[in-house]
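queue> pop job 88
queue> type: inverse folding (structure -> sequence)
queue> payload:
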């Protein structure tokens, strides 16, 4: 009877020990001991750069080239945010720069309308503007005119700058084109091949000694 009781207690101890060991899976123990590395947060759609407004790397490179020379410039340095490639619409670079970096003193003011040819004027239809100007801080006046039938146009930006180099820097950045070069005295920026239609950028001085930019773009 005593031997039978000892045998039963031994069997019960072996069973409980094996059952407890089975509950502790070695793989579960290792997995619990090793810290799970944090997973990267999913990228927000808003942070993905749109192809339609991708950074213009060539213009940004020119901007960085001139950054160290901008200390005594007469106009603020452009921000990288305005140097974008717009595929769906064209935004005139110098006007975009002024809107971004200078305070507008006036709204756009129409200075000329398209002439109505070959038809009686319609009193209910408003004439379409083909020329306008706008004033910005620092005495800047931006004027745009595209009134010619062949589509050619002209833009002028009058400044209070007495140093030409700031305007040279700005044209280099805003209108950078590997096919364009400056003339010897850095007053005209145009295509290497003058037979190719396009725009010409010119720096000149007014009667008061202030520099201005004149942009001429050919039509059809």
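queue> result:
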């Amino acid at each position: 009877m005593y031997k039978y009781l000892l045998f039963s207690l031994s069997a019960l101890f072996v069973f409980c020990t094996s059952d407890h060991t089975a509950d502790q899976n070695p793989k579960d123990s290792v997995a619990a001991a090793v810290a799970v590395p944090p997973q990267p947060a999913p990228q927000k759609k808003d942070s993905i750069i749109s192809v339609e407004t991708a950074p213009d790397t060539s213009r940004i490179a020119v901007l960085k080239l001139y950054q160290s020379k901008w200390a005594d410039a007469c106009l603020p340095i452009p921000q990288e945010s305005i140097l974008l490639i717009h595929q769906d619409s064209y935004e005139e670079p110098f006007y975009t720069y002024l809107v971004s970096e200078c305070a507008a003193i006036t709204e756009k003011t129409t200075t000329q309308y398209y002439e109505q040819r070959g038809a009686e004027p319609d009193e209910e239809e408003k004439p379409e503007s083909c020329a306008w100007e706008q004033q910005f801080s620092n005495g800047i006046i931006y004027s745009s005119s595209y009134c010619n039938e062949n589509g050619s146009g002209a833009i002028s930006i009058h400044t209070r700058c007495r140093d030409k180099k700031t305007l040279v820097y700005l044209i280099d950045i805003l209108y950078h084109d590997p096919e364009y070069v400056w003339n010897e005295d850095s007053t005209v920026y145009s295509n290497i091949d003058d037979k190719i239609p396009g725009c010409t950028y010119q720096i000149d001085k007014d009667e008061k000694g202030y520099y201005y930019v004149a942009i001429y773009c050919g039509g059809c």
